[in-house]
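Hi F.,

I've been meaning to write this up properly since the lab meeting, where we talked about keeping a consistent format for the predictions we share between groups. The idea is simple: the sequence comes first, exactly as it goes in, then the structure tokens exactly as they come out, then a line or two of notes. No screenshots and no reformatting. I'm using this chain as the first example so we have something concrete to point to.
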Amino acid sequence: MDLSRPMSAGDLSVINAAWAEHLVLLWRDRHLTVEQHIGFGRSFGQLEPMSHVAAARDLPAEILVIENDPVLNKSAEAPEPYRQGFQFHPVQWHSDNSYRPVPPKGSALYIRESPPKGGATLFSNMYAALEALPSHLRRQIEGRSQIHDPSLNSANVLRKGARLPDDVSRGTGPRHPMIRRHPVTGRSALYLGRRPYAYVCGYSVAESEALLDQLWRHATNPGFIWQRDGNRPGDLFLWDNRCAMHARDGLDSGERRLAHRVQILGEAPIPG
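Output, unedited:
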């Protein structure tokens, strides 16, 4: 299938069915321009401007640049969007932009440059995590919401103008259901977003912290994770933000890496 061209209705139907079944899709050895990448993303819905994360240099607003540049790493004058980015650091497990009232439904990541090792994108199946959740933990989260703190990005870098909460139970982030129903498949998934400064509503802070620690240990069990050695230039990922989490291995700070990502407009999480 040539993803550099507009897809037929039949091809799009096949991909959507596979996406609903597998949560994450990967195409190897693709050669896409920026415009073709954007066109691919638009096949699945309206794309979001990425200015709320960082403004791309000389690129359309829909493109988020994820870059590690050895030269900029050594420069005290690196641009602020670069310093706010992921660079070579490990990226913790998260669901994209869960700190917003309406998180994206999915993301399409295209790897333009990548070292031979390091920087692999990993995925965890949150349908499977919920299905295998011990009954005593499920009872503790059924019908409950969680506050998703917006102060840190997924590389634990403080966002520009943000401050850490003094009391997580009074956090400013949105409250999303911890069990989330998928609007297409109708299946329920565990929805955790990201760990730092999260809070489970209705519990004391100590109870919330203990519960979240257990849930995160469970959700990142290797049995739920698609583990790979590394990304390759030309890799194109499409993942479902509503039922999968992802993370990224760190890489050597002296290795060049460049990826572009577009995000597909979603809907407010539906309690499951």
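Notes:
The domain at 9-271 is CATH 3.60.130.10 (Double-stranded beta-helix).
Residues 104 and 265 are 5 Å apart (CA to CA).

If this format works for you, I'll send the rest the same way.

G.
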